[in-house]
Amino acid sequence: MGGFVGDGRDVDTRARTSEARVSDLPTMRRTNTCLRALRASSRPGRTVRHGTKWSRAAGGKRGTKMATRNANGDGGTAGRPTFDRPDKAFPLYMADFEGIDCRSMLSTVDDDDPLWTEIRKEAARDAEAEPMLSSFLYASVLVHSSVESVISFVLANRLAEASMLSTKLKEVFDEVLASDANLREALRCDLLAVKDRDPACTSYVHALLYFKGFHALQAHKISHTLWCRGQKVMAIALQSRMSEEFGVDIHPGASIGKGVLLDHGQGIVIGETAVVGDRVSIMQGVTLGGTGKDAGDRHPKVRHGCLIGAHAAILGNIEIGHSSLVAAGSLVLKDVGKRTMVAGSPAKVVGVTSSEPSRSMIHEIKSEVRGKFCKDWEDAVQQETQREKAMRDNPTMDWTI
After folding, report:
1. Packing angle between helix 147-159 and helix 114-129, nearest 10 degrees?
2. Residue 225 CA to chain centroid, in angstroms?
3. How many helices (H) and strands (E) does the chain have?
């Protein structure tokens, strides 16, 4: 049995822990560099590193001097990282903020983007209302310059793992978003859809930071762009991480439009050749899947304005017409016409819709527009009720059919 050290752990355990931490030394050194730079920048008279120079912070004496010390302070400079913007290089909510003025690190406001301006106001308000989360909100929203930068930062941190570092993922996400104007427009439309249709969403910043259905949708759209570029290995890797992290499995080949809401997101499965149009709302547990093992175009096409209820399954290369409603728990195996409501297993037409149900989020039909299925069902129930009453009134009669 190994001996014990001062912190209560046996020697063998501590040795294994030390070995495991060797690979983290570069990260730890970069972290310490950032923290020192952040603290120094907020205290008068302290030095701040810029490249290979150290200059006095505001409130100290002017002038600079060359610095030649390494992470251990023994005079060398080899391997010592430099940071022009330490607040960008290191997640601020992991740092010690005592004595640091976060407001001095805020990005400039883009007056041409009213959505971004509103998001910043909401984040600042939340930071003031909940001091415990203020550093997280500054790092995740207020130090960034756009909505794209925020979602890139959030997704990179949520999807990161040992083989995909958050810093590298953010570079990939930033590049994809910067190169595709349609993707940037879709990001804003999707964010507006969440705020407009989900009564549980009280602000844009809450959807941007916390709603996993929204996160899963944006991660998919980035992976879809990579898939279409031919970067299929990276796209599949992101799909795998998205499935693990969000509980949503969307093949990167699937095409999804703008203004789409994945409500709750949990358990949604969408196949490779599926197409989802604009302004569609999809509830939890929905499957847009194929049938059989044949390759090719084998998944559903959901047109614009549709509402797909919770745990509905739509299977095969079929079409759900625009502004239609698929009731919760339905199994749809055939085409559904436009402005139609279907329900049941297998699904049958039960009514029509008068507008885009995806926007109203109403999962029912009015009595004046009921379809033949509902009327036939009511007639059958009424006949059976009358028959049972007649049997009670005339028990001696032969009711055998």
Report:
1. 60
2. 16
3. 13, 18
User: CA 159 → CA 80, 220, 249, 255, distances in Å?
Assistant: 28, 12, 14, 21
Q: Could you tell me if 289 and 267 are in contact, meaning their C-beta atoms sit under 8 angstroms apart?
A: no
Say which residue the tokens 């992101």 belong to.
238
Residue 233 CB burial class (10 angstroms; 0-12, 13-18, ≥19):
exposed
- What is the layout of strands, in order, in the sheet containing 331-332? 249-250, 269-270, 287-289, 313-315, 331-332
Cα gap 336→341, rounded to integer Å: 8
pLDDT tens, residue by residue, 163-218:
889 999 999 999 999 999 999 999 999 999 999 999 999 999 999 999 999 999 99
Inter-CA distances, 129 with 96, 123, 133, Å: 20, 10, 9
Q: How far apart are CA 363 and CA 312, in angstroms?
A: 13
DSSP track, 100-139: --GGGGPPPP-TT-HHHHHHHHHHHHHHHH-GGGHHHHII
Helix, strand, coil distribution of the chain in percent, nearest 5: 45, 15, 40
Q: Copy the structure tokens of residue 102.
A: 């976060």
Question: Could you tell me the two tokens for 85?
Answer: 């913007």
| Beta carbons of 84 and 25 less than 8 angstroms apart | no
pLDDT per residue over 23-79, tens digit each? 444 444 544 554 454 445 444 444 444 443 344 444 444 443 333 333 344 444 344
pTM (predicted TM-score): 0.67
Task: Give the integer Cα–Cα distance in Å for 306 and 324.
Answer: 5
Beta partners for 47? 56
Neighbouring residues of 35: CB distance < 8 A, sequence distance ≥ 6:
90, 95, 96
Query: Cα 59–65–71 angle (5° rounding)?
Result: 100
What tokens does 344 get? Answer: 């049941």
List, in sequence order, the alpha helices (H) in 5-48: 11-22, 25-41
**Surface-to-core class of residue 377, CB atoms within 10 Å of its CB (0-12 exposed, 13-18 middle, 19+ buried):** middle
Amino acid identity, position 246: F
